[in-house]
Structure prediction request, 417 residues.
Amino acid sequence: MLDYERLRPTERAWDLTGMRRLLQRSGWCPGARPAVQVAGSKGKGTAASWLHALVVGGGGRAGLYSSPHLTTLRERIRVGEQWVPIDELAAILERLLALAGDQPPTFFEAMTAAAVEWFARRRCDVAIYEVGLGGRHDATTAIDVDAAIVTRVELEHTEVLGATIAAIADEKAQVIRPHGLGLTACTGEALRIVREHADRVDAELLVLGEDFALVDGVRASDGLGGTLRLPDGERRRFWLPGAAMFELPAFALAAAALARVAPQWLPPLDPAPRPLLPCRFEVFEEPDGEVLVLDGAHTEDSLRAVADELARRFPGRRPVVLTAAASGKRWREGLSALLPLADDFVVTELTGTPGEPAAAIASWLVDNGARSEVAADASSGLRRLRERPGPRLVVGSFYLAGAVRRLVARPDEDHDR
Prediction:
């Protein structure tokens, strides 16, 4: 199968024809409903995870389709706390490929169709689909959904989605269906584009800060709280134990979407059932008493949010940073957001995806006043990090954060229950 996540439109007819053909094959189960699709440059994985956690916390059966995976392909398809069993995934994919005939699906199309099938078999109360890339032509957009979320828009994947915020916002806005329901945390130019699309397709659009909002915020060392005003005007107190600031918009989008499409599964929010967010400001205690923070952020705004959270949690302390960048990423702009807070870097190469040369990144950091050295791989990079006082931050790519996580995290056996 072709790897959709590394394809460019020039290499394949980039549209929904193949995915729609897969979903319409005879013998395939209709998708579980209600369903929610989550798109955006920043926060889509967090919003999808929050939606999943809220449904489970409310007693419902939630299916979550997400990407990328950090340790195993099975992570991408889960119901509750269970990843799809490997034998069931293999059987679904084998049948799917047999039905596809001489028009094999891409990797992402196949996994998306498998998720639809498994969620239907498991009779999920709510199905959640995270967009892989963009929105207009993403395989998840071929699935019938009851609401679509566009979190926020940044410059990313510009060679595919366009070189401006407006162009990227237009690609992502397409997940909002004609006469459907959309929710967004976009602002500025991106919000203008999303509004125009919603008006054009006669969809209802709910905007964070206007139609629903977070008010009376409380920040504490052990969590975040406040009041959530839902789209119908109801106000609910919330407390998010251990949450980072960047989770607040994702939490609000998830709760507002659930309140509209499946309110029976919206649980009490004080405290809210917070999801595990691997490699999204995930904090580990180190053997020497220091902390290790893993985050897959790679865009300028995302890395600025990481820097803000570091300053909030560890005031007055300058982190040492292990970083890498996938090919084509705007790593200069991203690392510029960290330079006011950090001046000691270790740069390494990525495995599993093409990456920018570590030496070039290290040289740029030195030219911009930081100390920097190159490590051969994630393991040696982690060793170099541990030679310095912390906090220790791994950032710049989910591939890198995932590789380090495999070195430090204990296996979670709950996913096989």
Summary: The chain has two domains: 4-265, 282-408. The mean pLDDT is 91.
